[in-house]
Structure formats: structure tokens, C-alpha cells
Amino acid sequence: MNLQAEIPLDYLVVLSTIVFFIGLMGVLIRRNLITMLMGIELMLNAVNINFVAFNHYLFPHRLEGHFFALIVMAIAAAEAAIAISLIINIYRQFATVSVDDVDELKH
Amino acid sequence: MTGPKIIFFVLATAIVVFSILSIASRKILRAAIHLLFVLVAMAGLYYMMNFQFLAAVQLILYAGGIVVLIIFSILLTSQINSKLDPPKKSHLLSGAVTAVGGIVLATITILQFAFKPSQEPAISTNMRTVGRQLLGTDVYGYALPFEVISILLLAALVGSIFIARKNKI
Q: Which of A1, B51, B88, B168 has the highest CB neighbour count under 10 A?
């Protein structure tokens, strides 16, 4: 399928820009740790769209964007695992996952 | 409107709408399900660009792994019927200004930039090429990042078990 003739690269890059800033807004407006994590996942996925689109449209003789996207996914998985174990730990100490209520380092 | 264009616009609309719903929804479990729809639609985009392996990894790792992990942590930490607090006006305002300003600035920059595609012939993206390059040690080989990422995943695994355990050593 000849995608280049049908859909310009700009469409994909603008789409990923929109998703990135929606994720950023999610991180900024929500005070719940889990929803903030979801915003970060949205941002990582937007970056992945960019990598894959540039690989497919501009450098089809290599697979660099493909492997970058794979590595970003692996890092996102590691990050989600660490973040969720931290969230569970915070919930055990403070009985809440809202960042406004978690305001002391010492217990 | 041709076939691929229609599919692209359906996927793009789904991605944008569900990602807005996922940050705007006040029920946290519903937000996680909307995130799942975004990730599945992105796998569809990867299929459109002929990256079948990446689409499969996206479905398995994100839709099957991370979303399930997020839902587990929601079930462990929140009441299922409780609604999130509505965001403060000042947070909402600053977030909206940042997002809209960023989208406008980045879009203007993108539309002004002329991307130059390389003229070299495309290689196929089937599983054989991907596997050979992922484990290759020659000029287009990615064996080193692959091994480094496996060590990182092991460290994250051990670290998250240690952080989440109840009685610390």
C-alpha cells in the first residue's frame, strides 16, 4: 500500500503533537497519581507515532525509528511497573493517591 | 476519499477523542478504558504503516500489560464508585493555555518545515528483517541496545518487587 501518496507526513506529525499536548494537559490538571501516569503514557505513545512515521516516510531503507519505538515501549513498561509499585507503597503509608495530600517525606 | 484515507481519519479521530476523554473523565476506571482504546487505535496506525511487529508489540505490551497493570492499581487504591475531584480553575487554565499554545506553535513549525525523504530503496519490514537487525552486530545491528534494555527490564522488575513488598529487610 502506497501510504505516502494518500496521507502526507504532516498529518501524522500533527496528530502526534495533539496527543502529546493532551497528555501533558492530563499531567498538569489531574492531582491523582494514576491519572498522571496515564498522561505520561499518552505522551510516550505520541512520541512513538513520530518515530514510526519518520521511519516509514523519510528513511524507509532502515529500521531505526522502528527500534527506537520498541525501546521506548520497553522503557514505558519498566516505568509503569516502578510507578505502580511506588503508588501502592504511597497508598499504604498515606491511604491516598492524591499528590496534594502526600506532602511529607518523614513518617 | 480513498480507503486508506478514510481508515486514517477514523483512527485519528478515535485517538484524539478517546485521549481527551481519558484525561477528562472523572471516573478513573473509565479513564483507563479510554486509554486502552487510544492504544488499540495506535496499533492500527502502525499496521497502516506496515510495521506489523510493532503493532503486535503495542497490543501485547500496552493493551495487554500496562493497561491491566493500571487497572489493578486502580482496584487496589481507589473506591470504584468515587469520582475524581474536578480540577482547580487555575490548574485547568494553565493546562489549557500550555496545551493549546504548544499545539499551535508546534503545528506552525511542522507545516513550515519541508521534510526531505531519502531516495534509497525501501527495505521490507517483515519479521525476518526485524529479527536479523534486532540481534545483528553489523552496521545496522541493534544487539547492544537490545541487551541493555533487557538488563534495564530485569532491574526494574527486581526494583519494583523490592519497593512494593510489605516488610522491608
A: B51
